[in-house]
Design goal:
364 residues, alpha/beta, TIM Barrel, eight-stranded parallel beta sheet, binds zinc ion
Length: 364
């Protein structure tokens, strides 16, 4: 098959970035890097520097300069609409984070109504994005209801789909919107009804492979913990159904999000798990389980996102290459070791998804 694209990946920074990049670049052609670094990326200058850091963090064998890397800006209160208006070609998206709902989201938007209320900076940013035809990627979750009451984490996405997304779309009818890492039946239903040239969504492998029982089997499993959380089986089945329909507005976004083992196995477990070591193999498994390992898989992985984000197959005179996937089991044997950024004698481990377990497909 053609080399796929990943439209939602956390490369991180420092030595973590150096560990992650070769794994991602071995598997994916276009990638969209998420901006929730500390501090978040809110200027084009930093976005460009981050793109360069991604390029220089990979060994030559992955030919980084010939692979298209796209970056996103973080929709913080401090993001200047002028930055969006002046964004260079490689800034392909603005990422919306509801404040406090996921990793490094503290600088995000505290009141989602800012997105559809004239006169706010966030509204101006979305207007600038529509004008410039830059996609706005939404972490599609609300933290509170209309009365200011904190929502149950399992209700955050359904609330956003019912209350916030329709208002954003009404206020910005020309804006291209991607609802990221859909996790619920309500999200899937919304897409089936409204998905099209201006609205699409990314799906992760973990939301297609797991349901809530897997997260609590034998006790709480921190290395199966994400935001948005894995929901009950009827939600997983709705997402599988959406993915298996072969619709043009549904694409691959792995949300590979590595953390140190200590941050995962702590009093406050960090959200997200590294998927990059098997970034496409896990999707092959999910689509194989759905009997959809045909052109629906290739469109999902290689074409739909590229069309939506308005990128071409070629890059610097190089055409999109091919990869070969084989139904061959392998075991994830070891955590990944990362040297500490501040103390070069210290290192820490990153536990990848399915450590100690098998993955059904191999990239050869
Ligand atoms: Zn993410």
């Amino acid at each position: 098959m053609s080399m796929p694209d990943d439209w939602h990946v956390h490369y991180r920074d420092g030595n973590m970035l150096r560990m992650v990049t070769p794994l991602v670049r071995k598997r994916f052609w276009h990638t969209l890097a998420m901006p929730n670094l500390d501090p978040p990326i809110v200027t084009n200058e930093r976005a460009s520097a981050y793109k360069e850091a991604i390029h220089t963090s990979s060994p030559d064998e992955h030919d980084m300069y010939n692979k298209p890397t796209h970056v996103s800006l973080y929709l913080a209160e401090t993001l200047d609409p002028q930055e969006v208006a002046n964004a260079p070609e490689h800034v392909k998206a603005i990422k919306y984070y509801p404040a406090g709902l996921t990793t490094n989201s503290e600088k995000g938007i505290t009141d989602p109504s800012a997105l559809w209320t004239r006169g706010t900076r966030a509204h101006e940013v979305l207007c600038a994005a529509a004008e410039k035809k830059i996609v706005v990627c939404l972490h599609a979750a609300d933290g509170k209801n209309a009365h200011g009451v904190e929502l149950d984490p399992y209700d955050q996405e359904p609330h956003f789909m019912a209350e916030s997304l329709p208002r954003i779309r009404d206020a910005h009818p020309k804006l291209k919107i991607s609802a990221e890492h859909l996790s619920t039946k309500q999200g899937a239903d919304y897409m089936l009804k409204h998905g099209g040239p201006l609205l699409g969504c990314s799906l992760t492998a973990h939301h297609l492979l797991l349901d809530r029982r897997d997260v609590f089997r034998g006790g709480f499993r921190p290395h199966r913990s994400w935001m948005p959380a894995i929901q009950s089986i009827e939600h997983t089945e709705a997402l599988r159904d959406l993915a298996g329909k072969g619709l043009p507005f549904v694409w691959l976004g792995s949300d590979s999000a590595p953390h140190s083992q200590a941050k995962k196995e702590s009093d406050c477990c960090a959200s997200g798990v590294m998927m990059a070591h098997a970034g496409i193999e896990l999707y092959a498994e999910a689509f194989d389980n759905m009997n959809a390992l045909d052109d629906r898989f290739e469109n999902f992985a290689c074409r739909n996102g590229a069309r939506f984000f308005n990128v071409t197959d070629g890059h610097k005179d190089k055409k999109r290459p091919s990869i070969h996937l084989q139904r061959l089991k392998w075991k994830v044997r070891k955590p990944f070791m990362v040297w500490n950024d501040t103390d070069e004698l210290q290192h820490y481990d990153v536990v990848p998804f399915r450590l100690g377990e098998e993955i059904e497909w191999t990239l050869s």
